[in-house]
């Protein structure tokens, strides 16, 4: 699962009671309607709908990132943009420091 502060697995046990959206900075309809706990429940129980919901979120994240890249290139500030994005991302695969 892609997020502005780092990628993480939706199956992490730490998300079982987490009522936050997948990514606080994301405007997608998944983040505005569903919690991490609910999406984790769907993933753990094998509900196929989670695949569509995570795809919607991940595509929104990727399209917004690429729009930022295009703007940064056009403004001649790609290096600074890249540093900002990298500084904001964390390694969250272990469940520590979830975004």
Count the beta strands: 0
The biggest beta sheet reads: none
Poorly predicted regions: none
Give helix % range.
40-55%
Rg measurement, Å: 14 Å
The H/E string reads HHHH
Q: Quick check: average pLDDT?
A: 91
So how many helices? 4
Percentage beta strand = under 5%
Gross morphology is: elongated
By secondary-structure content and strand pairing, the structural class works out as: mainly alpha
What is the terminal separation in angstroms?
Answer: 11 Å
What structural keywords apply?
99 residues, mainly alpha, 4 helices
Topology record:
Layout: H1 29-33, H2 36-44, H3 49-74, H4 78-88
Helix pairs in contact: 2-3, 3-4
Can you describe what's shown?
This protein is 52% helix and 0% strand. By secondary structure, the protein is an all-alpha fold. α2 crosses α3. The termini are close together. The mean pLDDT is 91.
What is the structure about, briefly put?
The chain has 99 residues and is mostly helical. It has 4 helices and no strands. The termini are close together.
């Amino acid at each position: 699962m892609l997020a502005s502060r780092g990628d993480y697995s939706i199956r992490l046990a730490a998300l079982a009671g987490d009522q936050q959206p997948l990514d606080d900075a994301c405007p997608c309809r998944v983040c505005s309607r569903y919690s991490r706990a609910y999406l984790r429940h769907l993933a753990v129980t094998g509900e196929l709908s989670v695949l569509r919901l995570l795809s919607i979120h991940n595509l929104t994240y990727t399209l917004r990132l690429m729009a930022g890249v295009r703007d940064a290139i056009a403004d001649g500030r790609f290096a600074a943009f890249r540093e900002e994005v990298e500084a904001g991302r964390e390694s969250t695969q272990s469940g520590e420091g979830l975004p």
